[in-house]
Amino acid sequence: MLEKILLLLSLSLSVAEELCKPGVGEAYKVRFSIKTALGDQAYPWNKNEMFLFRAALAFAMRDFTNGEEFGVSDIHPCNETQRVSFWFVVTRPNTMDLVDKGTVEMAIKKSRNRINGAFLLTDKTLEFDGIYPTLAAPVSPDTPPWLIVFGVVMGAVSVGIIALLVYPLVQRKLKKNMDADDEDSDEETGVKTAENGANDGIYNSTFSDDERFTQM
Amino acid sequence: MEKDGRPNWDSPMQFVLACVSYAVGLGNVWRFPYLCQLHGGGGFLIPYLIMLLLEGLPLFYMELAIGQKMRLGSIGAWTSISPYLGGLGLASVVTSMYLCLYYNVINAWSFWYLFHSFQSVLPWAVCPINSNRTGPTEECEVATPTQYFFYRETLNISSSIEENGGIHTGQALCLVLAWAITYLFIVRGVKSTGKVVYFTATFPYLVLFIYLIRGVTLHGAINGLKYMFTPKMAELANPRAWINAATQIFFSLGLGFGSLIAFASYNQHNNNFQNQAIVVSLINSGTSIFASIVTFAIYGFKATLNYENCLDRMRLLLLNTFDLAEDAISMDSVLEWTEKLNTTYPEQFAQIADKVREGECNLEKELDTAVEGTGLAFIVYSEAIKNMPLPQLWSVLYFFMLLLLGMGSMLGNVTAIITPLRDFKIMSRMSNELFSGLVCVFCLLLGLGFTTTSGNYWFTIFNDYAATFSLLFIVLIEVIAVSYIYGIKRFEKDIEDMLGHRPNWYWKIMWAVTSPLLLIGLFIFYIINYIQGGTPTYQAWNKELGESAVTEYPAFGQVFIVLLLVSSVSCVPLTALYAFCRKRKDRASEKRPSAVSTVSV
């Protein structure tokens, strides 16, 4: 009995080694950059983390295939390096048939955020070689914000211009009303003042010194 | 109001601030630091200051004196000096008109960037995503996000001056706003301008000061400052350094446009413009030096950041290829590890050898990328800003400062057109506001041409050719006219009349001898340069490569350049000819006996 189990185990291990060949077939390479992402709070990479990875990937496969009961034993990693990068293959539950790359890729893409979250990493620090992250759709507001600021400034400037143009007209009107009142009130003086508008006087240029021309 | 009804500045301080606001413009921020870097850092200050004494100060003084004495805009003032020289004023007006057309487009860009700074992520910090959502847009990937934002989203630039497209509506709106604000500032003439300059002249210094503090505390700023201030005295032997110093002083002070004459014409007769001229020139040069300290601190920060990013990329490349632990290579040890890995794993290293060579990290090379003009202001600076903590605040401050500098200069430019034209009796029948409004609308409509897809290339034509050569010509004729046609003795007397004392021997020698000789030298140099340079070229943006390529101007472009130059320069001889013909006609009609001798008053 024991020998049978040992034989099965070694068989499965050797099969796993055969299944998971870096760069060949349906294998994917994954790379963790934990220290870059977390700095001082980085956790060390060990067997437990590897177990979490296999569990997360099994979850992703289950989620994508809608119920096929993938287990931790269906994820086969190999060639682990100090970088914290390794290759892995996925086999169908209870068999040794490899799941093709396309399916694995789509499963990972679907659950990428969940896998990242499990490790406190991001798309950049947990890389699957060959699987490009789907970037978040750009948020486009209804009115671009710059237009709002533009509207405010333009409105203020227009108000300023109108104010500057209208103010002297208003002033002149008020003055006219005041002058009309004054004229009514000093009719008895009998002095006929000049009409409105000529109050400032005209500069008579006859007597100015205009000899600025160079004699040529 | 003076006896001849001409409006006045409320106080001499307003006049000084107006001159400062006009002279201190974008050139101080984006041209002087570039020249400093090009010509040996701190050593460039020597030719710069010498040229200030030989050329800048005397010419500035002279223009102020003319304006204050004649109390007319440039056309009227030069006609008063000699009827044959009215063309000088006209040439100034034409050149100012060209300047107004394209200068406000820069303000429109500043507005665009300013408005786009009110976002949580600055739009030039990240690339927009392409339609498949797999990565950034192609063009943005080959270029940098800041370049993409400037060339694609701000300008929507075409690939050459021949290709044209529609108007960029955002740009057009910003240009309308820029002209609306210009109108708001000049609508009441010097009354409104005088109040505005209190703000436009002083606020930029506050922002520069804040930026100075921020700049020198940035990581890596010291590299830039060291690079700038290590004088390379060998550069002084290069004649180009001296020529560039002379040109920079000349254009920086805004001589020849007629703005200084216009501003000074609103002065009281006895205003002490001698001290004011010295003060304004010194402030202008001081601001240039101040701005280059800030610019170089920012350069140093950006260069250090790029260098460190480059090292980081190298580090990642090595880590990923050789599968080493993450903390095996630190930023400092990247270079030694490259060596080590090259020797221990040569075959594996050969695979990435190309990438390593391409991505070679060199701090000197980063610092060496000297940029000037709009490239510095809108690309390099915005790249530095996006990396600062709290980038929105710094972005708003920076573009607001650019706006103030640009608007302050626009005040002078527009006044240079309006003042001489208003001196003509026909125009003075129209109200002030209407006339200013018409000028603004006219310039706005023509300026919309710069907001088209090839607009930036036309902008470059105007920037390089509209005001450079003609100004040299104008100021040369100005100084010769004042020194030799009007006569130094008469000029002296006029100044004594205004100030109460004659100008001392320094000024007289500069006006009569040094400045004309310098200007003639510059003039000849420009002509030789133009002839030797062959076909004029420009930088066309190639969107596939994500960089600018040097392209020759097509035939119509070259014709346009010639037209620009000829249209302003030819005003002088044509007006002289016109005055000559009129005088001959007058003399001929005087000789004819008049039937009725009227006593005309």
From TrEMBL, chain A:
Protein name: Collectrin
Keywords: Cell membrane, Glycoprotein, Membrane, Phosphoprotein, Signal, Transmembrane, Transmembrane helix
Record field: transmembrane: 146-170
Subcellular location: Cell membrane
Signal sequence region: 1-16
Organism from which the protein derives: Pundamilia nyererei
Record-linked PANTHER family: COLLECTRIN
InterPro entries (UniProt xref): Collectrin (IPR042944), Collectrin_dom (IPR031588)
Membrane topology: Single-pass type I membrane protein
Region (Disordered): 177-216
Gene Ontology annotations of biological process type: positive regulation of amino acid transport
Recorded GO CC terms: extracellular exosome; plasma membrane
Residue span(s) of domain Collectrin-like: 24-216
Pfam families for the chain: Collectrin (PF16959)
Automatic annotation (TrEMBL), chain B:
Keywords, sorted A to Z: Glycoprotein, Membrane, Metal-binding, Sodium, Symport, Transmembrane, Transmembrane helix, Transport
InterPro entries found in the cross-reference section: Na/ntran_symport, Neutral_aa_SLC6, SNS_sf
Transmembrane segments: 12-32, 44-62, 83-105, 165-186, 198-222, 242-266, 278-299, 396-422, 434-459, 465-488, 509-528, 555-581
Membrane topology: Multi-pass membrane protein
Keyword hit for Metal-binding: yes
Source organism superkingdom: Eukaryota
Main subcellular location: membrane
Gene Ontology annotations for the cellular component aspect, listed alphabetically: apical plasma membrane
GO biological process terms held by the UniProt record: glycine transport; L-proline import across plasma membrane
SUPFAM superfamilies xref list: SNF-like
Gene Ontology MF, one: L-proline transmembrane transporter activity
Places the protein is found: Membrane
Amino acids binding Na(+): A23, V24, N28, S252, N284, L405, S409
UniProt family annotation: Belongs to the sodium:neurotransmitter symporter (SNF) (TC 2.A.22) family.
The protein, known as: Transporter
Organism: Pundamilia nyererei
Gene designation per UniProt: SLC6A20
